Amino acid sequence: MLKTAVQEQLLPGDTLQAKWDFAQQSGYDAIELRGKGDLHFASRLDELKQAAKDGVVMPTVCVDMLHFLGAFDEDLRRDAVAQMKSQLTVIAEIGGVGAQTPASYGMFSRRLPPFEPPRTEEEDREVLLAGLTELGEHARKEGVTLFLEPLNRYEDHMVNRLDQAADLIRATGLDSIRIGIDSYHMNIEETDPAAAILAHADVIGHAQVSDSNRFQPGAGHLDWPAWLGALHTIGYDGHLALECRLTGDPVEAVRSVPGFLKRSGA
Amino acid sequence: MKSLVDLPVRPAPTAPADHLTLRRGAARVLIDNWTGASTVPSRTLYPHQWSWDSAFVAIGLRHLSVRRAQRELESLLAGQWADGRVPHIVFNPALPHDAYFPSPDFWQSSRAGRTAGAPSAPETSGIVQPPVHALAAWLVHRADPEESRRRGFLARVRPRLAAWHDYLLTRRDLGGGGLAAVVHPWEPGMDNSPCWDSALERVEPAPPHAFRRADLTHGHPADRPTDLDYGRYVRLATDYRAAGYDDRGLAHRFALEDPCFNALLVVSELALAAIARELGATGEPHTARAARLTRRMVARLWDEDTGLFRARDLHTDTLVDERSVSGLIPLVVPHLPQDVVRRLHTALDGPHFDAPATRLVPSYDLTGHAFDPTRYWRGPAWFNTAWLIQRGLRTHGLQESAERLKDGFLTAAGRSGFAEYVDPCTGAARGTRQFSWTAALTLDLLCADPKEPMP
């Protein structure tokens, strides 16, 4: 049985403790935190430590900013790397396993005008390898993992598929960087999502779930048994973290997911 | 006399702790061999879609992805001919013609088979394989009835499956006795079984230069049919092609009624009855047909002397004097005379089929004159036949024997790396590895409700 987690903003309740009560009642095994910029995540350290002390399970944090390690702008790129370093430190401090980030989000798409990005592919790769190496080394020092998430072609122009993420990770030579896969993006980008999981099994470290329409699993048309069956096949032992939009009654939608995933083979 | 220590020891059954490894391994094979709409039996040896392979694959795939299991059967049925036949190979158009022999330009289905109703695309072979498909469709439906109904799965496959059975029971009733006949040794699925030897002697082989085998590129010659056999297979197929694959216009030189083929037709008729009932229609015509087929099978193919079913050669109108695993498969038929069930059960543990190194059932009589432990269907033990016999034993309440066979199956599957078949004398893996139906049926034995009834 694969473990499930749910991102904190999807849960009702004013405190992490209240959210955790709801999460547990709904059948989740953990909460995935969201890491805002301006060192906001670090400013929550006391809150997070208290929650951990109260038994809230928080293995991962997913970045929640608008600039990333692959930013075209050098200042934004430097800031993104600094923010991610801080998030890795904080998640380590509360006993978590890692932090997830894409290369970029909403910065450029080769499928939308003006079609040609301001940097060449070689320059993109150089920038990404530099950022990943710096973050991977920091993660290793902290004893946690950086999860690189491939996004679909309309949201990022650099890392869309697992093979691209795997290639960058292997180039850094760091086992403190793994792929954070996402069912929604994989559905758009991978020829065969289940086969892609098997092909890159050795570098998959985290998994986020949402359905074909970005809503909660069960609201779209993904072949969940095949996707989850592939994760079972590789012996994946991390969480399936719910990161999605909700359709229908939001509380019921969140509550429906662990049962749905279980029925689908999780 | 051999002492006890000289006898090969059957491997101990796998412990439940190994089942997780086995399950992961089986799922890996099925994910690796999936091509987007169907599963290749093997990435190396069999790069297209095979008919009865797809049915067995779907039976296992239903535990990994019901949607893929449905697609597996739907994509096969997309190659069905207008006369109802489901071809034994549906070719992948993306592969070069020399990826497999006989290739699309050998069968020439879209041209030579046009009158008989071959589709203009995809290219297919012109012969058939055993009708396991309705059984597979029913089992796939049962795995997730809600998803099946949502996709209208049964409603879409039912008319095709009914046409397939109609073809077999009309065009292929060559003996006039109400059973389906096979017209090529590849049709019963047990290509080079000694059961076909005497009938094949009537066939003049095609000269060796007339064809180039592709199966030897990836398969070991000792594990595969001989060149002489292959020459005869080619001759029969070219004669059929020359007749436009018209069963009415050709005096087939090779025509036999095979027990396994007809037993699967009975079970698939019962599955069609269940499918009809699920769709709100009456299953009665299919149930009645299954009963008639069962009676005819016993009347025409049961051999009281050996306590086995045997193939009937329609040229001599006699039973073929060979013991084959095909003669045990009718155990899957639910309404057999009690005495027949008892004798088949006895035969399984007797000297002809109780193999020294595996609980799997050898494809041919261990004491037979033509027994060869490594050559394809002339002795090696296969996983699909074991799965069928295991289900048959359960159908007749022989739980203990069924459980033993299941344990033996899982042990052999794990040890052999999901081999195509195993040597019954040593237990060694033979043929290709990561074979799809071996993996699929492993998954089925691990995941299916052991009380799941036959239709």
Automatic annotation (TrEMBL), chain A:
Pfam families in UniProt: AP_endonuc_2 (PF01261)
Isomerase among keywords: yes
GO molecular function, a single term: isomerase activity
Sorted UniProt keywords: Isomerase
Organism superkingdom: Bacteria
Ranges where the Xylose isomerase-like TIM barrel domain occurs: 21-262
InterPro entries noted in UniProt: Sugar_Epim/Isomerase, Xyl_isomerase-like_sf, Xyl_isomerase-like_TIM-brl
Protein name: Sugar phosphate isomerase/epimerase family protein
From TrEMBL, chain B:
Domain Mannosylglycerate hydrolase MGH1-like glycoside hydrolase, residue spans: 46-438
Molecular-function GO terms, alphabetical: hydrolase activity, acting on glycosyl bonds
Protein name: Trehalase family glycosidase
Entry keyword annotation includes Aminoacyl-tRNA synthetase: no
Annotated SUPFAM superfamilies: Six-hairpin glycosidases
A UniProt-annotated Pfam family: MGH1-like_GH
Keywords from the UniProt entry: Glycosidase, Hydrolase
Family, per entry: Belongs to the glycosyl hydrolase 63 family.
The keyword Hydrolase belongs to this UniProt entry's keyword annotation: yes
